[in-house]
What does this fold into?
Amino acid sequence: MSLTFGPDRQTREFQCDCCNAPIERAWNFVYVDGMVYAVYFANCYHHRGRDHDAWIDVIFGTWGAGSEQWEDHVSFACRVGPVAGQDEPASTLVTAGLAHPDGPLFGRKLDREAALQHPRLPEFWKVSDFILEHDPLVRGHVYGR
Ligand SMILES: [Zn+2]
It folds into this structure.
């Protein structure tokens, strides 16, 4: 299964509620074999006095030509950033959709416990690794520009 990005990647910058530092967000579709497979939102934080980290939400579901269905959407999220005692940034499961208003797009927002039990967890890690490696904003933020 090889993943590719959709053609319409978007980025936006807004202000952090807690410290007014900039937050950079990238979002895009991820395709498999030319078909939409998932959507992601990646928020890159620059909180003052805290680690730079990225929070990645990935939504799986049925995507399609004009007949969007939401019932089967399910979302996962992880935080990627420095952790004590490790040289490399690490990914940690977190509750999905925390930075996003409730809406049908995210479907069922899994928390860490639910994500650990979910059969699509390996797919989530595959997509989040792909984003970490290939989304220029996320990669630059987590691994240095
Ligand atoms: Zn902040």
Notes: Residues 16, 18-19, 21, 47 surround zinc ion (CB under 6 Å).
